[in-house]
Amino acid sequence: SVPAAVAAGLSTGARHGLLMKGGAVMETAAKTSLVAFDKTGTLTEGRPQITDLLPLNGTEAELLATAAAVETGSSHPLAQAIVARAEARGIAVPQSTSATAIPGCGARAEIDGEIWNVGAPRLANETGVLSAADSATAHRLESAGKTVVAVFTPERLLGLMALRDEPRADAAEAVSALKQMGISSVMLTGDNPVTARAIADGLGIEARAGLLPEDKVTAVRDLARDAHVMMVGDGINDAPALATAHIGIAMGSGTHVALETADGALLRDRVTDVVEQIRLARATMANIR
Ligand code: ADP
Ligand code: MG
């Protein structure tokens, strides 16, 4: 049976939205030496906003309309931001068909018999529609911590847009508190290395970027060779990485989906609750030793 101290620790945590699935999880949490954070929706708000619209041919409205047509139906946060902005501006969005996701890269759909792509500039680079000047523009925006999205057919680039997903207000504080406890932090993201670096530098954290979901699993496995790894993510597309870490914690509103694959959850959408959870686990385990 679970010792009384552990039971008390688990229920103290639960009262504050710090859930752990039992005493074994608490014991593991207490040993955490490295926290791997997913970026989008965990260290950041997960609600990117369009900051720049750069049409190269045509108007801002045409750029938004085409991008929104491709992204309609996608649940990706970037897609939702683009569709929401088109709606807010009352732009008529053309019909699209055969919309598909390009995992870790973007989305694609057919509009009026033409194939349109909305995604990372590197995708546009592959088809050669991005000029050196366009690449330089993209790089400048990425250095400001923005994610750049290109809107293009295999023949031409319609324009670029940039979106910024703000770090959560307490993310830097959480990273620094963990450091004081002797715990290092790493940010894992599918975003490009330049954007990732800009965000990570602001938080004082190391970053591993350009990761597909399966790469996040490999990254966690790699980190777990030398450390006791707690992985914190939204739990929706991070479930395999959460399962790979010594302990997987789901954070935020999507948590009811995630709790099945996670060892615990943080219900209050605060990054500093990662610190609170490890403190609670350490204090509890110290009590029974
Ligand atoms: P993460 O969840 O870590 O941010 P994703 O794998 O969801 O990473 O996306 C990685 C990158 O692929 C994004 O930063 C973006 O550049 C691009 N991308 C993915 N999906 C879309 C989409 N629907 N629209 C535009 N860009 C996308
Ligand atoms: Mg994601």
Automatic annotation (TrEMBL):
Cellular compartments annotated: Cell membrane
Domain of life: Bacteria
Similarity annotation: Belongs to the cation transport ATPase (P-type) (TC 3.A.3) family. Type IB subfamily.
The name this protein goes by in its record: P-type Zn(2+) transporter
Organism expressing this protein natively: Thioclava atlantica
Full-sequence range covered: 394 to 682 of 735
